[in-house]
Amino acid sequence: MADSPPNKAHRWRFHRLGGFDQVRIESGADICHLPELDQKLWAALSCPTSGVEFDSHTLQLLDTDGDGRIRAPELLAAVSWTCTALKTPDELLAGSAGLPLAAINDESEVGRKLLKAARRILDNLDKQSADTITAEDTADTNKIFATTRFNGDGVVPPSSAEDETLAKAIADVIACVGSAPDRSGAEGISQELADRFFEEATAHDQWWAEGEADASNILPLGEATEAAAKSFAAVKGKIDDFFTRAALAAYDTSAANPLNPAEADYTALLAQELSAATAQVASFPVARIEPERNLPLAAGVNPAWAGALASFRMQVIVPLFGDADELTREKWVDLSARFAAYAAWQDGLRGAAVAPLGIVRVRELLADGSREKIAALIAEDRELADVADSIESVDRLVHYHQHLATLLNNFVSLHDFYTPEKTAIFQAGTLFLDGRSCDLCVRVDDVGAHSALSGLSRTYLAYCNCKRRGGSEAMTIVAAFTAGDADNLMVGRNGLFYDRKGNDWDATITKIIEHPISVSQAFWSPYKRIARMIGEQIEKFAGAREKAVEASAAKGIADTSAKVETGKAAPAPFDIAKFAGIFAAIGLALGALGTALASVVTGFMGLSWWQMPLALAGLVLIISGPSMLMAYMKLRQRNLGPILDANGWAVNTLARINIPFGSTLTAVAELPRGAERSMRDPYAEKRRPWRFYLFLILLLVALGALWKTGHLAQWLPQSAPPEQAVQATAADKAAEAAAPGAKDGAAAPAPEAK
């Protein structure tokens, strides 16, 4: 194992990614010294075993306590064990699927066992010449142990016994007390099951011995007593009924006929299709009732009970009393007493689990040493326990060799997330929607619980239900939109989601958590809000006017109809003065608007040429600046942590999604490089002249304002005055000089003519 010299601290390297320092895992030494790294510097402290795009079997191996979470101590234990098992942990950085046998550290006890087990696996798979072992080789333990007698699990199937007699004994044990699964996939028995079987067999043998001690009463027919007792029990109730009725008939002869079926009972059967199984027939006495009559066993019996009586005769009467055709009351009482003792003995049954084998087979298994032979077979299997357990450890090492470094770069650091050519294990795939592709998509189990925390990420999030086309598969994801705008993002919009395996899913937005997406969106948002507000107000005004016109028209029609009916005079004549006032008010409004516009234009034109663009920039800044500033501040606060924490992670740092990095997580549609583009659109909206007219009106208003303020006159060239005008002006000045008293409005006298 590669390591640093003794008493020398490992030199760690960090790099700045996502706004925080992340450790760089670049060598096997970095991995081996990971237990020495302060966990406050780790990017995460735990992660769930579900909802991540990572090898599920490796996660199960890491989750040693089986609680569905991988914590830092479990990861450190895996790192320490792996570094001990390998000669050089640098092998882990490659993440190759095959583990070279030469990479296993055979100088340690752990490594020697692993190497021996790896070679055994390859031998069992008929790959003796292979020098590399893969996860595929270690995946199926049934295949590995399919051709071996022993595998170290302490369970032996019948095939493990080379003796056919012992194999049959193991099969009998399985039939009586059940089985345990062997690593080969077959059903076998463990020492616990074997002990249970032979304890049951011993108890059953003792129970039989107690019955045999009083065989004349309890076992009058030996082993056949059990079958005879069942036959006896089947007819006991009906025979008791017969002898009781016969005794009543002897007690009172007049009771004989009523105790037999009446004629009406037989008449009721005429309309039925009768058989021995007919319930009403079976309810009749087993034979005709006569005083002190013996029970016939063959002829003259109820057909519904003929079969049961025949079985009772062959299994009970003939073995005990010979070939008799009748049963007396005295013999019946004797039989009842004998089988009552047998029933009491049966109530104390012991070793019921082995009873189906019969006492003969049970005693045979107890006497032929099967118990000792099975125990020896299980012990022989257990001798290989260390090797077999090491086979499972080989599977662990193969998976760690391939996947451990990847997990470290998504747990100790978030290197894969902040590296453009890589994908983090929590990224479920890519969502295509609204001309964008979103790479930060995370699986979600509970939208309500997740959204309660994920909103703190300051990221625009869209929850989507995804369904696999042509199947019943479904899942929910949350996608982060970090570029573009939110104008066309709304609940109900559809897109297409591609998972990490390339499968496509139909995606529909079900919930949105709104936050700023970009600064450019914030720049235009005030103008869009103003446009929406104006549009809404116009719609409201137009709607109100439409309703007013409709109401007025309806009222006018109603008034006209009423006046026509009552014969009233026609409406008053048109009042032009009223409408003149309206037009005057409209004129004043337009004048005020023009004056305001003229003032703005006048003020703007009064600026120097270099001040004009500054004024325009200042106006734009006043309108869009606050929105852009707020968006910028929020975009700088975007944080991956709440998105993952809501999914069960324990993110240990402030993993920012700043503006430059966010632009890499969401790609906006762009034309390919070198693509040709035609701007001619046959379906483009036709231009209307109103824009030109509006421009002319604004131009005239601006010119009028400039003329009124005199700014336009100073820009126009001054022409020379005509000669006559100059002479007239000179004469006027001379006249004013000759009549200085022409002040205060007095007229000067005209000059005398020459």
Question: In a nutshell, what does this entry contain?
Answer:
The chain is of the alpha+beta class and about 750 residues long.
Describe the structure.
The protein is an alpha+beta fold and 754 residues long. Among the domains are: 14-148 and 384-408, no CATH class; 158-211 and 365-382, no CATH class; 220-350, no CATH class; 426-515 and 638-670, no CATH class. It has 28 helices and 18 strands. α5 crosses α19, α9 runs antiparallel to α18 (370-382) and α11 packs across α15. The longest helix is centred in the last third of the chain and has 48 residues, at 519-566. The chain starts with 13 loop residues before the first strand and ends in a 16-residue tail after the last helix.
What is the count of DSSP helices, taking H or I runs of 4+ residues? 28
Helix content: 40-55%
Low-pLDDT residue intervals, each spanning 5 or more residues: 1-6, 741-754
Proportion of residues in extended strands? 5-15%
Helix and strand content put the structural class at alpha+beta
Give the neighbour order of strands across the main sheet: 13-15-14-17-16-11-12-18
Mean pLDDT value? 81
Radius of gyration: 53 Å
User: Outline, from the CA principal axes?
Assistant: flat
* Main sheet specs: 8 strands, antiparallel
Let me know the number of strands: 18
Termini separation (Å)?
A: 136 Å
Helix and strand layout, with pairings?
Layout: E1 14-17, E2 20-23, H1 28-32, E3 46-48, H2 56-62, E4 69-71, H3 72-85, H4 91-94, E5 98-100, H5 109-124, E6 132-134, H6 135-139, H7 141-144, H8 164-177, E7 180-181, E8 187-188, H9 191-213, H10 215-218, H11 225-251, H12 256-259, H13 263-267, H14 279-282, E9 295-296, H15 306-321, E10 326-327, H16 329-347, H17 359-367, H18 370-382, H19 385-408, E11 429-433, E12 436-438, E13 441-444, H20 447-454, E14 460-468, E15 474-481, E16 494-499, E17 504-513, H21 519-566, H22 576-605, H23 611-635, H24 641-645, H25 659-665, E18 666-668, H26 690-709, H27 711-715, H28 723-738
Helix pairs in contact: 3-19, 5-19, 8-9, 9-17, 9-18, 11-15, 11-16, 21-23, 22-26
